[in-house]
Write a structure and sequence with these properties.
The protein has helices at 32-41, 64-69, 170-179, 205-210, and strands spanning 2-5, 10-13, 24-25, 46-52, 74-80, 92-95, 106-111, 118-127, 139-140, 144-153, 159-163, 188-191, 217-221, 233-236, 249-252. With 253 residues, it is α+β, with helices and mostly antiparallel strands.
């Protein structure tokens, strides 16, 4: 298993060498797959970073005095998990021979926050004729509509498309219009609830309900007149985030 001091984000692989029940594993030769397996074993979904302890600030690792008091040292090396591994039972390691010390021990940072693996893949303005809610009824590519955002997970390839909340930012509205090929600096921006369903210029309530559309972002900000999605800052919406469909972002470029 993994012994983790969560506040300091250090993790150690526990193996048995016949004389002591646990200790550190040497960082030499550790692959990203092996580090990911260790994070999963510790109850985390994602690996953030792995390194040798000597390369990590003292506030983020097990301190020397604690290791001395608890007689903690490197007891394993050559830890390796095949690319198709699903848990530590698929991995192998050898007993340390004394050449690797605590400075060369493995340090991991793990998290359950997967937001770092998501990127903005697309922004568009969408609308439909009220009363028509098939997917094919959704129109895009015009200069007006509800702002729809697509995010992509760079690890899994998963994509999600949905709403983003209204924002006062003039930079954001100008940037979205520029990305869509419209250089109007004074785009009209509204909460979707201020636009009538019967105007057929937004994603209607009926379409949202029938297609179970929800928010994919809880925050979006883009620098003014910027044409690249990579320049925008965003926060993924949690599963329970719902400021109401009337607060979705609507633009007329």
């Amino acid at each position: 298993g993994i012994n983790a001091e969560y506040g300091k984000q250090w993790y150690q692989r526990r193996v048995r060498d016949g004389t002591r029940s646990g200790g550190l594993v040497c960082a030499g030769g550790i692959s990203q797959k092996t580090a990911e397996i260790l994070c999963n074993e510790a109850g985390y979904e994602y690996l953030v970073e792995y390194n040798a302890t000597k390369n990590v600030g003292s506030s983020s690792k097990l301190d020397c005095d604690t290791m001395k008091d608890q007689d903690i040292s490197v007891i394993a090396e050559n830890l390796s998990c095949p690319s198709n591994s699903t848990d530590l039972g698929d991995c192998s390691a050898s007993v340390a021979n004394g050449s690797c010390d605590a400075d060369e021990a493995l340090w991991l940072s793990c998290t359950n926050d997967g937001s770092q693996y998501w990127e903005l893949a697309n922004l568009t303005l969408a609308y439909n004729e009220a009363g028509h809610h098939d997917r094919k009824d959704l129109e895009t590519g015009n200069d007006y509509g509800t702002v729809l955002v697509t995010v992509r997970n760079t690890r899994t390839g998963e994509e999600r498309t949905g709403l983003t909340p209204y924002t006062y930012s003039s930079y954001t509205r100008s940037s979205i219009c520029y990305m869509l090929g419209n250089t109007n600096r004074y785009a009209t921006y509204r909460r979707a609830g201020q636009i009538s369903d019967s105007s057929n210029t937004k994603v209607s309530c009926g379409f949202i309900l029938e297609n179970e559309m929800s928010y994919v972002l809880s925050y979006l900000w883009c620098p003014g007149y910027y044409k690249n999605l990579s320049g925008c800052n965003f926060n993924l919406a949690s599963e329970d985030y719902n400021p109401g469909n009337d607060n979705a972002y609507w633009l007329n470029c």
